[in-house]
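DM from R.C. (forwarded with permission)

"hey, sorry to bug you on a friday — could you get me a structure for this? deadline for the figure draft is monday and I only need the backbone to look sensible"
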Amino acid sequence: MSALQKSPSHERLLRAATEVFGARGYHAARVSDVVAQAGVAQGTFYLHFKSKEAIFLCLIDDFFGRLLGETLGRFPASAVADTGELAVQLREMWCAILKHCRSEAVLTSLVLREARAVAPKTRVHVEEWFSQMVGDINGYLRALSALGLVRKGLTDASAWAIFGLIERAIHYAVVVNREIEVEALADEMLQLELTGLLGDRTDVATP
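My reply, with the result:
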């Protein structure tokens, strides 16, 4: 990280951009709005960022980088010895995801709302983050499968499905229902992830 990235003005601009983009939307926001919100000179902005797109991408990178670091970065499959420990680890990850996104609700809402509505070049950058997250989930599942903790034969589709579940759970917790307790939602998502809709029912015929 460079000296400029560590400076107070850099952090002030990022916070201001989050607030301005969150309130006005990416397309309506202007660099001058971010500068005014941050209380810095226009030239200071361009010392740190080339454009409005550049600061938006910095927010995106920071968001996804920290989210990955606080989940799969903290909870490797190698730390799990049995299915009981796996359930505990998965619950901890669900709680970490939801707490992180709740604590940064404005930035989370911005990513959910704006990430696919930007210019094609920026959208590709966001899609690369999605692909990286899915790849990391897939690697986690494969590691669990090698340990005999989940069934074999899981494909990339399973990783994408889990990613979709995570994305929608975040949307529910941050946008739809801010009142639901994180732990309760984590338990529900964990149950859905581990047992699906049928749970332990034995009266349903297998197709």
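R.C.: lifesaver. Residues 120-146 form the longest helix (27 residues).
me: no worries. The chain is about 70% helix and 0% strand.
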